[in-house]
């Protein structure tokens, strides 16, 4: 957990109520009951299925397509190459032989 009590490295980092039915697994029983309730809700509500599906598809297209990944990698590369790294640090790194 981080300092705000948020779980790190979990699906909560990628999901929100705009495109998912969230379940708070406070215990094994709560998880099972949450899954059952979510599946019933999802099965009975066509509008909800459509809304979450469309929002999820849009999020994936905006954030996880190859063009976006390439742009992000280039941003990181540009930042890394613009850094002023002292020569003593660069020279202290020995390549694997």
Automatic annotation (TrEMBL):
Top-level taxon of the source organism: Bacteria
Entry-linked Gene3D superfamilies: Glycogen Phosphorylase B (3.40.50.2000)
Name listed for the protein in its UniProt record: Glycosyltransferase
């Amino acid at each position: 957990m981080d300092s705000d009590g948020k779980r790190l490295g979990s699906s909560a980092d990628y999901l929100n109520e705009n495109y998912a039915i969230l379940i708070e697994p406070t215990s094994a029983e709560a998880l099972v009951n949450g899954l059952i309730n979510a599946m019933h809700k999802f099965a009975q509500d066509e509008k909800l299925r459509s809304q979450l599906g469309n929002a999820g598809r849009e999020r994936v297209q905006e954030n996880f397509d190859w063009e976006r990944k390439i742009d992000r990698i280039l941003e990181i590369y540009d930042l890394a190459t613009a850094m002023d790294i002292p020569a003593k640090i660069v020279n202290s790194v020995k390549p694997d032989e």
